[in-house]
Design a protein that fits this description.
The protein has 26 helices and 5 strands. With 533 residues, it is mostly helical. Among the domains are: 78 residues, Zinc/RING finger domain, C3HC4 (zinc finger) (Herpes Virus-1, 2-Layer Sandwich), CATH 3.30.40.10; 112 residues, Leucine-rich Repeat Variant. The strands form 2 sheets. Strands 2-1-3 form a 3-stranded antiparallel β-sheet. A two-stranded parallel ribbon has the order 4-5. The longest helix is centred in the N-terminal third of the chain and has 26 residues. The N terminus and C terminus are likely disordered.
Length: 533
């Protein structure tokens, strides 16, 4: 799943044709149609960047936080809209002269589906362009690099995420992601399977070789999934969930376009048993690496988002787990963010279910490894929420690592400094009442991320009396916490005094580059137990 370009986005997005308009006088001129909807505009508006769109299309794009790329390569600014009454009158006059029907008010749902198509298409194009612009390591190199990483302990009951280098730079910034290194003394419980693991879409699922033979197991399950009887659908999703819970080969063989197409519609079912077991089955299928991209590109993310927003409690647990599992694949991170999963995941951090909160936090951690998602999270105003959770002790270890990721971009550092993050983190370290050494270590790691070449940090740190706290960490903290504390203290002494050359020399001495920082958070020797159903 590297940069081989084998995966294709099968999406059809209608655009009006000026050539067709010349051939048929009844077709509206290109300037009368909305570039987003492809239809004659009912209520045209001029946006801040000068283009004209259908008003509802602009609203849908704003709701989905999406700015479509135009033919000239620019992206419109939807911050301001002004009614284009002159064009509206011209359109109506053209309709009367050509004896065409006046444009009808567009439907929000249909426009939403079209915009989601454009979003998926944009993700595919962006990923293809990025692969062409940079040299990517080959699949062989990636496989050869695996033995160099700490081993992953696999178990159907529980596993953990091995610390690994992020080979995939999906973001547009030169700054790289937070990299978690092993720290035997400070466990960080990151699993590679969701806590909930149970050992109409605008995206088109391409069925290759529709005449190919289907296994008896797949045929039996498909027959029930496609049945018009609710009881048989329930039997089908329960059977699929059961067989994919414990059999790896079943997860590989049953993740077919036919099964995915049938399963996708059942996730939106209003019948509780159907919905819960359909989402749980998707979690099981997503556990295999080769299935992850296939699932996202089959259009499941919008359905999972809808479940997170308004599904049954158990369905929400599984939906958060599915998004976490899918976010583990680097090729999915940008797509999941573009499709609007960040805001529902933020909201789910305060869910009643421990599983929903836990897997939502892990999903956000992995999604925030991508620069574009970091910027989106900052714009969504997540920083104050995360800081308040840290202070309250809610998922503090995981939330601190999300903050570490956000601090790797300029927007994130600015937002955290504005939210008084330095005083908050120093206050936590000063109390000495943290639940674990991992939380203490991650507090220091967050301070280190914020200190990167920042004169403002130096002033805030002085006000918060960070030096005395970090000196205490140097004496009593874990090895990695002491190392980070020393680096921050060194940074406080050098920032603004020695210029760029001195700063570069510092990064070289600690084994870092200007683009990559290794923030500590280690493996947990006490493997988390994941619940099976």
């Amino acid at each position: 799943m590297g940069g081989n370009g084998k995966h294709r986005w099968k999406i059809s997005f209608h655009r009006s044709s000026s050539q067709s308009s010349k051939l048929d006088p009844k077709l509206p001129p290109k300037e009368f149609t909305c570039p987003i909807s492809g239809s004659l505009m009912f209520d045209p508006v001029v946006v801040a960047s000068g283009q004209t769109f259908e008003r509802l299309a602009v609203q849908v794009c704003k709701d989905l936080n999406f700015s479509p790329k135009q033919e000239d390569g620019t992206r419109p600014d939807f911050s301001t809209v002004i009614p284009n009454l002159a064009l509206k009158t011209t359109i109506l006059n053209w309709c009367d002269k050509s004896r065409s029907q006046h444009p009808r008010a567009p439907d929000y749902a249909s426009l939403g589906g079209r915009v989601r198509q454009a979003m998926l298409l944009s993700v595919g194009q962006n990923q293809q362009e990025e692969r062409q612009e940079r040299i990517r390591v080959s699949e062989t190199e990636l496989l050869n690099a695996v033995p160099d990483n700490p081993p992953v302990i696999f178990s159907h009951a529980a596993t953990e995420l091995s610390p690994r280098v992020n080979h995939f730079n999906s973001g547009s910034s030169s700054e790289e992601s937070v990299i978690i290194l092993p720290s035997p003394g400070t466990p960080l419980p990151f699993t590679v399977r969701p806590t909930c693991f149970s050992s109409s879409s605008s995206c088109e699922i391409e069925i290759e070789n529709p005449g190919a033979p289907v296994s008896e197991e797949e045929e039996r399950i498909l027959k029930k999934l496609k049945s018009s009887e609710v009881f048989e659908k329930e039997e089908g999703v329960i059977a699929l969930r059961k067989i994919t819970r414990s059999k790896v080969e079943a997860r590989l063989l049953l993740c077919t376009p036919r099964v995915l197409l049938a399963l996708r519609g059942l996730i939106a079912s209003r019948y509780g048993v159907v919905q819960v077991n359909a989402v749980a089955s998707l979690v099981n299928l997503s556990l295999e690496k080769q299935n992850k991209v296939k699932i996202v590109r089959s259009g499941f993310v919008p359905f999972l988002i809808d479940v997170l927003k308004g599904g049954l409690d158990e369905s929400q647990e599984h939906a958060a787990g599915a998004l976490f599992s899918l976010a583990l694949d680097d090729d999915n991170k940008m797509a999941i963010g573009v499709l609007g999963a960040l805001q529902p995941l933020i909201h789910s951090l305060r869910a009643e279910s421990d599983r929903t909160r836990h897997d939502s936090a892990l999903a956000l951690y992995h999604l925030s490894l991508v620069q574009s998602n970091r910027v989106k999270l900052v714009k969504l105003g997540v920083v104050p929420t995360l800081l308040s959770m840290v202070v309250a002790g809610n998922l503090a270890s995981q939330v601190l690592l999300i903050l570490c990721n956000l601090a790797m971009c300029t927007e994130g550092r600015t937002a955290m400094l504005d939210a008084n993050a330095v005083e908050c983190l120093v206050g936590l370290l000063r109390t000495n009442e943290l639940d674990s050494e991992a939380i203490r270590e991650n507090c220091v790691a967050a301070l280190f991320a914020l200190s990167h070449r920042s004169l403002r940090f130096k002033g805030l740190a002085k006000d918060a009396r960070v030096v005395e706290v970090l000196k205490e960490v140097e004496k009593t903290g874990t090895e990695r916490a002491r190392e980070k504390a020393r680096k921050v203290l060194h940074m406080l002494r050098t920032v603004g005094d020695g210029g760029d050359d001195e700063s570069d020399e510092f990064y070289d001495t600690v084994g870092l580059t200007r683009n990559r920082y290794r923030l500590g958070a280690g493996r947990n020797h006490n493997i988390l137990n994941t619940t099976t159903f």
